[in-house]
Amino acid sequence: MSALAYMVFTSENIILIGAVLLIAGVLFGKFSYRMGLPLLLVFLLVGMGFGVDGLGVQFSDMHTAQFIGMVALCVILFSGGLDTKYSSIRPVLAQGLVLSTLGVLLTALLTGIFVWWLSGMPWTNIHFALLPSLLLAATMASTDSASVFGILGSQKVGLKENLRPTLELESGSNDPMAYMLTLILIETIQLGGKLTVGVLLVQLVQQFAIGGLAGFAIGKFSEWLIKTYKRLGGEHDTEDEGQASSMVAILALGSAFLAFALADIFNGNGYLAVYICGIVLGNSAAPFKRGMSRFMSGISWLCQIIVFLMLGLLVNPHEMLGVAAVSLLIGVFMIILGRPLSVFLCLLPFRKMTFKAKCFVSWVGLRGAVPIIFATYPVVAGVEGASQIFNIVFFVTLLSLIIQGTTVISASRKLGLTENPPIDEEEFGVEIAESSPTALHTMLLTESDLAKGNTLRDMSLPKGTLVMMIRRGDQHIIPNGTLTLLPGDVLLLISEKEKEAPKAPQIDIWQ
Predict the structure, then answer these.
(1) C-alpha–C-alpha distance, residues 30 and 39, integer Å
(2) Distance between CA atoms of 220 and 280, rounded to whole angstroms?
(3) Where are the alpha helices (DSSP H) in 383-465?
């Protein structure tokens, strides 16, 4: 047995093990790109490698895991909300919301009925009644935002038909639905009652209404709070801008937790409140938004890593072997039938969406940390068969990350849905202070832009606009008036904020 198994769990040793896990996860994660593995899957496997059946680190506290997961999920959803722009989700708002609500409900229903059918077979080793079968399915019904954000964010690939904002909106907003279904089913099982459609709808409407209202109100309150913080410095504020940006980010994070707590107190959905709070704040006129977004992005990645490492430690792989066969059947059903059926039924009214796009949305039904976190709720609540539910959910999550997570980008290419990625001015490695009266923009040159000449002197840029840098392939060129420009060059422009950015093919990073 490993020496780690005999290690006394002092504060120092916990810090030591945590440091080793983080470093090992990051280093292994760097190699994951070569193998095409999702980064978060690597952290999950590293956690399993250090766990009971690996190096012997023992961690089995479901209550602690549930609390850490809850906090981490709040941060992940809030960060996702901050980066969700109205301009990007407005064209896909209807289909995104249908997928995140009705889609989750249909996935849970179809999968739950399949699990119930499996339980009645004499050759299976699970024996769930209908409600526990639906509970198992409900924990896995949502697309995991951390996995989707991680894979789409790490790949330099653009997607046609507004698929990226559709998937990000769905994955960011469908966790509340799965969470509500999980809690409602646990409560129904514990009370020994029957779940009626009327009761379910009333509770869902209540949770959505209160959670949405709390998120919107706290989002507006956060905007006011941040502006107040800036005004407290007076006209000649001497506070370092980096420090101010960090303080504002902490204010925003505190507001996100406040939104969750208030929604929960009034029997609303806290996760929905957190996500909407992030959207409202991310689309507000609050200062320091860029710094706040970067801060939250780093914290979000840390939370995702910690959760996946912790969940890897939490599971006992040898216990999954007993449910491996039935878990494989459930996972394949969700990938091949459950998710695609729910997606195509939900997207029937959206006739402009192509068949290939619907197929791709069906394939990106990634499971991740969220289903495993939700699977701890039946265990903590003492639901009969909860340990089997947890192990099945973990196995299905691994299966989803391995099969779907490694093929998301290749599937988009085979379906002909990829395009050149949007160009972000941050890719130039240049930034200016938010208090500056200037702003950065990018511009992709086409042959029509060079019709009157192929140098900067021949281009008629708006007054007050200068070209700071040119990107040509992997090269970054400092421009001069005699440099020969080529179609495909990307210009980094700086212009006065009160003046409009150039209207020649300018790249909108949110389209």
Answers:
(1) 8
(2) 7
(3) 386-403, 408-414
Task: Note the pLDDT tens digit of each residue in 224-268.
Answer: 998 888 887 666 666 677 777 888 889 999 999 999 999 989 988
The single residue listed with the structure tokens 């209807």 is: 94
- If one counts every other C-beta atom within 10 angstroms of the C-beta of residue 62, the result is 17
Give Cα 83 distance to the centre of its chain. 10
What is the DSSP pairing of strand 418-419 with strand 438-444? unpaired
Percent helix, percent strand, percent coil in the chain, to nearest 5: 65, 5, 30
Q: Please provide the DSSP assignment of 85-127 as one string.
A: -HHHHGGGHHHHHHIIIIIHHHHHHHHHHHHHHHHTSTT-S--
pTM of structure: 0.78
- Asked if residue 370 lies in contact with residue 148, where contact means CB atoms within 8 angstroms, the answer is no
For the cut 90, the answer to whether the pLDDT of residue 51 exceeds it is no
308: left (phi over 0), alpha (psi -120 to 50) or beta: alpha
What is the reported pLDDT for 34? 60
C-alpha 511/C-alpha 145 separation (Å) is 20
Burial class (CB in 10 A: 0-12, 13-18, 19+), 165: buried
- The half-sphere exposure of 63 on its side-chain side, counting CA atoms within 13 A, is 2
Q: Which of 388, 349, 501 is nearest to 439 (CA)?
A: 501
